[in-house]
Amino acid sequence: MKDEFSDEEWDDYLTGRIASDARARIDAHLLVCSACWELYEKQAPVMHAVGDAAADAREHLTISDRQLRIMFSQTLTTIRAAEENTPAQIRHGLEFLNSLLIPVFGPEAAHRALRLAATRSLDQVTPESWNSFLERLANITSIVCGDVFAGMIREHGQMAPAVH
Amino acid sequence: MEEDKLIVESFLLNRTEETFFAVYEAFCVRIRRYFVLRGLDVQTAEDLTQDVLFKVYQKTGDLRDAESFCGWVYAIARNSFASHWRSLQSRIEGAEHIPLTPDLAENIQIEAEALAKLRLTEMLEELTLAERDLVVLRYVEGLSYEDLAVALNVPLGTVKWRIFEVRKKLSQRDYETNENNEKDGKLSYF
Fold first, then answer.
1. Total domains, chain B
2. How many angstroms separate the CA of residue A163 from the nearest CA in chain B?
3. Given B33, B66, B95, which residue is the final one in a domain?
């Protein structure tokens, strides 16, 4: 069974939501494999019923477009309130450090370095924790790129808008 | 699913109100439904859904890979669900009284009626909480095995094994029902 189709395809087959090419492969396999045929006979009826019941749940548990927009608007309000609580100078400082790191680290590793230096989340960097954050970031960059670049991060980080 | 991928890629590339709305539109109903099927009332399900999508917006920088986005969103949802139950449990232990307002009573009643009509509810009753979680994520929400591994924070092999076991359990139940019905001369409810 494993050579001809995956576990996931078999599961999709049992619930009746498989793509046609994989269906044909499994159909052909069931013609010649009595063990799989036995399993199919045992599990397919109930799994088809589960698939139908799941489709039924998807159909019934929906929300109106109006309700969706109300929820979206409420979420946006929460997002804006949270952004207002993050001082602009911190955001600018993080963006500035990110712009220094990207040419050396690449965008993904730059983001990871900032996150690791922030310990938990970038949202939790505050003016009070800025210096310790910067020191952790300098330590990370020192290991990856050496002391010269780390010194630059330390120096420019101090001069970043976040500290003013 | 392909459409979801484009929406997610666009959002990860450029986090604006428009791209976030597209993500919101794609996931809001699913996350709300997941919470309702896990037994929450409508109001709580909607509150937690908003909380999940707020976290998605805030923490999206943590995730650069569009491929694992769906599993990641459900991982956040599962964590929110667990936190909710922990806080509810501590409130119950603290014997805090929650007054049943007419609005709350109406919501509970409407959702209870809606859930009672779903065939899936009957099937889920036979399962453990972890198995219900798996069935909802796999068969209602349609998560792939890889998405499930991200959402449940387990290796792919564990996902395969758990699905195998839950299928066996569901089939066993059906088999017993068929046998009983055959004895009674009735047709199976499946």
1. 2
2. 23
3. B95
**Does residue A76 sit at the B interface (CB-CB below 8 Å)?**
yes
A and B: number of Cβ contacts within 8 A: 110
Residues 6+ apart with CB under 8 A from B96: none
A11 touches chain B (CB under 8 A): yes
pLDDT tens across A13-67, in order? 998 888 888 888 899 999 999 989 998 998 898 898 888 889 988 888 889 999 9
CATH number at residue B56: 1.10.1740.10
CA–CA separation, B87 vs B85, rounded Å?
5
> For the whole prediction, is pTM greater than 0.80?
no
Per-domain residue ranges for chain A? 7-61, 87-159
Question: Does the beta carbon of A19 lie under 8 angstroms from any beta carbon of chain B?
Answer: no
Find the length of chain B. 190
Tell me if A76 and B170 make a contact (CB, 8 A cut-off): no
For B96-149, write each residue's pLDDT tens digit.
556 656 665 555 555 555 565 677 888 888 889 899 999 999 999 999 999 999
Angle at A72 between CA A69 and CA A77, to 5 degrees: 125
